[in-house]
Amino acid sequence: MLRIHFSSTDWEKVRVLPRPDPMWEILLSLYMLAEASDELVFGPWRRRVLTRLPPAGRALLDLVPAQGYAPDFLSPVAGPDLSDGLEALLATPRRQIARDLDLRFAGGPRPAWTSGLVRKEAGAMRLLSRAVTCYFEIALRPYWDYISHKAQHGAREAAAPGGAVAPITRAAKTPPSRMSTIELDYGVDQDMHLGGRGLLLIPAFFCATNPVTFLDPALPPVLLYPVRHEPLSFLARASERQRPAGDTLARLLGRTRAAVLRALTSEHTTGELARSLDISLSSASEHTSLLRDAGLVASERHGATVRHVLTPLGLDLLHPPS
Asked: What CDD domains does the record tag this protein with (predicted)?
């Protein structure tokens, strides 16, 4: 449970950021990459990133575990652009880097390169900066327009009655005159004392289920909260928004085959594909066979059914690298 303690002066400083934060999305997506949860929504993205991420971007995997604490310094709240976050990251004091890394590795073995971070050696900081940039370009940049759109919509939903942060936004409209506490579901027990600093609410595309905040109480009070996802690979939604004018893909492959390709950002059986696209079973089988022969679709038999999903090449056709 997260207990947020508001003073009477905090309410006027509650702000809802109507956009995602690049550094927080990097951090939260690294958790999503490492832990195979929400497979329906994030599975195709996860497989695509893991097959494309070069060594330069994998250094971040040393710092962010599948579960548990990741260094607070990786997610400074700076500005709308990645360059703003990188500038704030590289300006992190040595003392904070050292403390956060001690918490992250808890006395256990550490990757050798992280010792240079503690001393803010130029080589280690360049490695970290390259890792952040490389990871963002592969994992987030191709979908950033959709992520931003979804976060903006999620911010409105979360503030509405019944939304993730509705208790906070509702109280901010008619602030209590005394000290008050709002409790939210959280992974662990934690208290956040605002102390007149206010609170920044940020919608988070890659936030799994519960809100997220800094562990260090001295850092600016922020609360990342999850946005709602439809039960479908978000790559399919992203491709709809990024579809070229005149539907170039449909002209290239044919309208039905292009629809099959888009549908297979999530795994489907031949029958499921036929039903979802309102085509015959034989037509669905023919289209998946041709796409498989072109290397765009992989198929695997499970008993009496065959399941189909896009290959990395198929994903690249829908989502060309930036």
From this structure: HTH_ARSR
